[in-house]
Write a structure and sequence with these properties.
By secondary structure, the chain is an alpha+beta fold. The protein has six helices and 14 strands. The longest helix is centred in the first third of the chain and has 15 residues. It is globular and about 50 Å long. The site of 2-oxoglutaric acid has 8 residues, from strand 4 and strand 11.
Length: 267
């Protein structure tokens, strides 16, 4: 589902400024995660040219307003019901590609990252923070793929390396894809099984989008042992350990989610 100019431009400009302030360390990072592009990092890029993502902004006073946007939540409620958690937050910046094509995002299903179900009660809102086209790396989707199953994900074998956590599915490169050109403020809502990704940014400008995954408050956490999600669980647990948190995959997701409407589930 795509909604035209759902979010107003001045709010998106505020988010952009927040991102720039974070890149330049003008505001403390706190519990935010700032991620560096692997090839731009090797080339010595800094600031907006280096960071491709800020995650975990549910406690950031500026960016969290996106997750609580009343119009977005009215659409989200159709999928989740009245008690809504923001579970995964990202502002994705695509700096001009260094020529190594690391600004691509491989085709994937977001459910790969989530140890809770049911999938039909999870939905992503993704808003273009500027005009986004095939040239600067728009979203690409495989229409109808949300009716499929969760597939095996691994790091793609790209010549110049792959950014952290960019796992992808294999065998879909020849499938017909749909490119989602969007103007600033346009928002897409999509299912966590939908196969999607994004192309490289071949322009000299930046491409930014802000997104939040939501779920109903009463999700069931699942044991992913013996499933295709073991590899991402292991990777996430290693990262949290390095940060001194020692959270398991399930607790990691509980820790970073926040109620945005209705009531928290009591368990
Ligand atoms: O904004 C993009 O390029 C796609 C991001 C995405 O699908 C993700 O991080 O899961
Ligand atoms: Fe995704």
């Amino acid at each position: 589902m795509k909604k035209m100019q759902l979010i107003d431009e001045s709010f998106l400009d505020k988010c952009k400024q927040r991102f720039l302030d974070l890149c330049e360390k003008k505001v403390p990072w706190g519990s935010l995660t700032m991620m560096k592009d692997i090839s731009l990092s090797k080339k010595g890029a800094v600031g907006e040219h280096l960071y491709y993502k800020v995650q975990d902004f549910v406690y950031d006073s500026v960016l969290f307003e996106y997750c609580r946007h009343p119009t977005i939540l009215d659409y989200i409620e159709c999928f989740t019901g009245p008690d809504i958690m923001a579970i995964h937050t990202m502002l994705i910046n695509k700096p001009p590609d260094s020529g190594s094509l690391t600004s691509r995002h491989p085709l994937h299903q977001d459910l790969h990252y989530f140890p809770f179900r049911p999938a039909n009660r999870i939905v992503c809102a993704w808003t273009a923070m500027e005009d986004i086209t095939p040239e600067n790396g728009c979203l690409v989707v495989l229409p109808g793929s949300h009716k499929g199953k969760l597939l095996q994900h691994d790091y793609p074998e790209w010549e110049n390396g792959v950014n952290k956590m960019y796992h992808g599915v294999r065998g879909f490169d020849d499938h017909p894809i749909m490119e989602l050109s969007m103007t600033k403020g346009d928002t897409v809502f999509f299912h966590p099984i939908l196969i999607h990704g994004s192309g490289p940014n071949r322009t000299q400008g930046f491409r930014k989008a802000i997104s939040c995954h939501y779920s109903c408050a009463e999700m069931e956490f699942i044991d992913i042992q013996g499933t295709s999600q073991e590899n991402i669980a292991k990777e996430i647990e290693e990262v949290t350990k390095r940060r001194g948190l020692e959270l398991n995959f399930q607790d990691f997701w509980k820790f970073r989610s926040r109620l945005v409407r209705g009531q928290q589930a009591v368990k």
